[in-house]
Specification:
Layout: H1 4-10, E1 14-17, H2 20-29, E2 33-38, H3 50-61, E3 65-70, H4 91-106, E4 124-127, H5 129-132, H6 137-144, H7 150-154, H8 157-163, H9 170-173, H10 175-190, E5 192-198, H11 202-215, E6 225-229, E7 242-243, E8 246-247, H12 257-265, H13 269-279, H14 284-296, H15 302-331, H16 342-349, E9 354-357, H17 366-372, H18 379-387, E10 391-393, E11 396-397, E12 415-420, E13 424-430
Parallel strand pairs: 2-3, 2-5, 3-4, 5-6, 9-13
Antiparallel strand pairs: 1-6, 7-8, 10-11, 10-12, 12-13
Length: 432
């Protein structure tokens, strides 16, 4: 069985463990069952969740059984934020989000195939609403709450920050009891002996371990463990997973596959090798080779291209990746624009400078469009671009400074692709 701890270490993922020697021994004697929880605070997971999802997948590839736990119960409260109280969502909203997130998680792990013999590493999808909603307030207080000391709860960073500022409700203060009980319940039901999470979850994880020790006495499944991964930071200090357009979601209706691809392709040279280690399944040799190419030939962006390809295939599938690749090539004159489907073309043009024209009857000249989309600094600059042979509409060179797009030029009846030279692209969308 592969050494998952060594794998996590060289990828720069491993942050904390309760007892790394004992955990190594348990993993070597395995397979073990582990879990990570995902609260439904929105209708989709985002790229910030990928590190934890892929950590479960790495354990599964090493022969262990992962449990992806969706917090249908804890999601009704939410893990306390450092700054302010969370807004409580309705049970109906949370149930809808649970279903969407369960479907997303199912795409990353291998589950039992009814036509194949069961395997020890077959993944499990669980929902903590199954047990938390069955627990009474008295049971929570008597059976769980009595094992928690108030002093260490008050020393938590988030609690101290909130109490020194806007304050914290008893609801959020008690969140740790519920998450700790999750670990105890999974320990009992599935023999789960490892919880993983980001390093900001260390306090919740150790509280769960303490609850197992106090109530179950580490029997019958032996000692339980905790492991956290490093929180991801970008070299420029900006937050990972955010762009000017907002959060990068896994749901293709919230973040198009084209925008998703571009997010990874635009990774800075200083971050790309680290992201390859943390997010892809490429081997050490493959990543070392891409690191060397980034250092020696950065303009080729080979590492960014590999990262964007792997992540788009992983999250959206081979078919969507092929559409994205074809659109990317066609936009820059290396493919046929009329072969790009309407949804992908629309998404691609919204990622570049673009202008909207109310109706085709009002469509300006090519020179005007170049100026409106800022492909050229002014109309006079746009005229010079045309005169010098550097202006293209739908990859066709424009030779007349008075040229105006014709109706038959429209792609899918409403799009135009403008290009200045080889690398500068803009779009025109007819209608809203």
């Amino acid at each position: 069985m592969a050494d998952i701890i060594e794998e996590l270490e060289w990828r720069g993922l491993l942050a904390q463990t309760t007892d790394i020697d004992e955990l190594r021994k348990a993993l070597a004697d395995g397979p073990i069952t582990l879990y990570c929880g995902f609260d439904p605070t929105a209708g989709s997971l985002h790229v910030g969740h990928l590190m934890q999802i892929l950590t479960l997948a790495r354990f599964q590839r090493c022969g262990h059984r992962p449990i992806a736990l969706v917090g249908g119960g804890t999601g009704l409260i939410g893990d306390p934020k450092p700054s302010s109280e969370r807004s409580l969502n309705s049970p109906e909203t949370v149930r809808g989000w649970v279903g969407a997130i369960r479907d997303q998680l199912a795409a990353f792990l291998r589950f039992a195939d009814p036509e194949q013999p069961a395997a020890a590493s077959d993944a499990v999808l669980a929902n903590n609403a199954d047990w938390l909603t069955e627990m009474t307030a008295l049971e929570l207080m008597r059976d769980i709450g009595k094992h928690f000391s108030l002093n260490p709860m008050l020393q938590r960073d988030t609690v101290r920050t909130r109490l020194a500022g806007s304050g914290m409700s008893y609801t959020e203060f008690s969140y740790v009891l519920l998450q700790s009980y999750d670990y105890l319940e999974l320990y009992r039901r599935y023999g789960c002996t490892l919880q993983t999470g980001g390093s900001d979850q260390w306090g919740n994880i150790t509280s769960g371990l303490d609850l197992i020790r106090r109530i179950a006495g580490n029997e019958p499944h032996g000692a339980a463990h905790g492991l956290t991964t490093n929180l991801l930071t970008k070299s420029d200090g900006t937050k990972f997973g955010k762009t000017e357009g907002g959060t990068i979601w896994l749901d293709p209706h919230l973040t198009s596959p084209y925008a998703f691809y571009q997010f990874w392709f635009n990774t800075d040279d200083n971050d790309v090798v680290d992201f390859l280690r943390k997010f892809t399944f490429r081997t050490r040799g493959e990543i070392d080779g891409l690191e060397e190419e980034t250092r020696d030939r950065p303009a080729r962006r080979a590492a960014q291209r590999a990262l964007a390809e792997d992540m788009t295939r992983l999250v959206h599938g081979d078919g969507e990746y092929s559409k994205v690749r074809e659109a990317s090539q066609a936009l820059f004159g290396q493919g046929e624009l009329d072969q790009v489907d309407a949804a992908t073309l629309d998404a691609a043009l919204r990622e570049v400078p673009h202008t909207t024209v109310t109706s085709f009857a009002e469509c300006p000249t090519v020179v005007d469009l170049f100026a409106q989309t800022e492909l050229a600094a002014s109309k006079s600059a746009a005229r010079r671009t045309v005169q010098e042979g550097g202006a293209y509409v739908n990859n066709v060179k424009v030779g007349d400074v008075d040229a105006r797009p014709a109706n038959e030029d429209l792609l899918h009846g409403r799009y135009l692709v403008l290009r200045r030279g080889k690398r500068n692209v803009a779009g025109v969308v007819i209608g809203t």
